[in-house]
Specification:
By secondary structure, the protein is α/β, with parallel strands linked by helices. It has two domains: about 1-280, Inosine-uridine Nucleoside N-ribohydrolase, Chain A, CATH 3.90.245.10; about 300-465, 60s Ribosomal Protein L30, Chain: A, CATH 3.30.1330. The protein has 18 helices and 13 strands.
């Protein structure tokens, strides 16, 4: 009975991440790598990112962060800025010139205050969080002093720093006053050292990353091989990334305790390189519930879809592929709007950077085919199923290929672009008119069209996204 109880706890909510985090960054070149690793891990939920001065000034660092999130299509992760620090950034040239993404049209003038963002996240998330500081401890000092909820909901500070006695460390010297005070307060500080002067991103690790088909690995590899930081020795060292590795694998560090605080040092860089690949590949939790691995061999699938398998996976990733396969098996035939529902759900999860079963979905596709077929794709790709009480179909409002997604008291609406919806509905209507729903030819043509649209429709281009609140 004890074993059974343990198993139920272990498997009852497999998609609930082990770590909820808020990140504070000062725009250093190692911050981009660390943030990308945190975003890549399905065992971490990045609730928000705040920007404080350090390597870069706040406006510049803000543009870096927003451009990075936009490049990953994680536009819905809130970014707040600290405007009250007196620290004047040295504006390191390499960091200034390093591209995290397109900064066109981005500025911090209308960015929300960091304290407001932190307060919102701590209010709406029930799980205690880890606050990860990739620069100074100014963010912790400011938020803990102005937000009563901070000390109640933050369980630990993870600080990229060699320790309290290393007074010449850059992150310590950005704001000595904040560091001294935070280290004396109640929330434990986990200080994590970097890899030292040894090259962390050696040829082995770079070769391994080249085999990882994720946008996060591709971004870091591109950063290492080209651009402003490529020739900078600091970019090949493991600095802030060690904080991410410590969060996932503390056993790979030697940890010394000083009161309530700890200092952790990397123990085996070879093991940490392997774990870096694991994180960037998104292999920090089991993604399936019944099968260990989802088949990617094209010969596993029916002949008509076999030629498109590898291309769909390469273009849109395993998440869309597996969701599409399961949705169509659930749907009992290949359906265009089932696939559109899959693409819409994956896009909404990208926007918020969530796993499955983490937000509510209100579908406006109604209950009449072919539009209602979208509901099967939505529930598979988001985990917002009727059984979880997270999927509702709105039959009162005008029906259309649209859905609303609510997460952390924020809501967005995704709608299939009108010209595309008109085209697809017109095609289905014409096939129905000529052959009728009872004809095998109808379903064969729908199947053929579904495969084509699955391959051709890029989920990043086919939806209008509207922020409702």
């Amino acid at each position: 009975m004890i074993v059974l109880s343990f198993s139920l706890v272990l498997f009852s909510h497999p998609w609930k991440p082990g770590h909820y985090v808020i990140i504070d960054t000062d725009g250093g070149i190692d911050d981009m790598k660390a943030i990308s690793m945190l975003l890549a891990s399905p065992d971490v939920r990045v609730l928000a990112i705040t920007v404080s001065p350090g390597v870069l000034d706040v406006p510049t660092a803000y543009r870096k962060v927003k451009s990075l999130l936009n490049s990953y299509y994680h536009e819905g992760i809130p970014v707040g800025v600290f405007r009250g620090s007196d620290y004047i950034s040295p504006g390191f040239k390499t960091a200034m010139n390093t591209s995290w993404g397109s900064e066109e049209g981005l500025n911090s003038e209308n960015a929300p205050e960091a304290d407001s963002v932190i307060n919102d996240m701590l209010t709406h998330e029930s799980t205690k969080i880890s606050f990860i500081c990739l620069g100074s401890l100014y963010a912790v000092y400011d938020a803990s002093g102005s937000l009563p909820i901070f000390k109640k909901k933050v369980k630990e500070i993870i600080w990229s720093s060699p320790g309290p006695d290393e007074k010449d460390g850059f992150n310590y010297n950005i704001d000595r006053k904040s560091a001294s005070r935070v280290l004396r307060e109640d929330i434990p500080v986990r200080m994590v050292e970097g890899s030292g002067d040894e090259i962390f991103y050696n040829k082995y690790l770079r070769d391994q990353l080249s085999e990882v088909p994720t946008v996060y690995a591709n971004k870091i590899l591109s950063f290492l091989l080209s651009g402003a930081a490529a020739d900078h020795p600091y970019s090949l060292e493991g600095k802030d990334e060690m904080s991410v590795l410590y969060l996932h694998f503390p056993g790979l560090f030697t940890t010394n305790t000083t009161g309530k605080n700890t200092v952790s040092t990397p123990r085996n860089l070879d093991s940490l390189r392997i774990r870096t690949v694991q994180i960037l590949a998104g292999r920090t939790v089991a993604k399936n519930q019944v099968i260990k691995e989802f088949p990617v061999d094209p010969s596993f699938y029916f002949t008509d879809i076999e030629p498109s398998v590898t291309a769909i996976i390469t273009k849109y990733g395993m998440d869309e592929w597996t969701s599409g396969v399961i949705a169509n098996e659930l749907h009992r035939h290949l359906g265009i709007f089932a696939i559109i529902g899959v693409k819409m759900g994956i896009r909404a999860r990208e926007y918020y950077d969530t796993g499955v079963d983490e937000f509510k979905t209100l579908s406006q596709a109604g209950s009449t085919p072919p539009l209602s077929c979208m509901n099967d794709g939505l529930q598979v790709s988001t985990g917002s199923t009727p059984g979880h009480g997270l999927l509702t179909v709105d039959n009162d409002s005008p029906v259309g290929p649209s859905a609303e997604f609510t997460y952390m008291d924020r809501k967005i609406r995704l709608t299939l672009k009108p010209e595309l919806a008109k085209k697809i509905l017109g095609e289905l209507k014409e096939i129905n008119y000529v052959y009728g729903l009872d004809s095998n030819i109808y379903w064969e043509l729908v199947r053929k069209s579904t495969i084509k649209y699955w391959l051709d429709l890029d989920r990043h281009k086919i939806f209008n996204i509207e922020e409702i609140r």
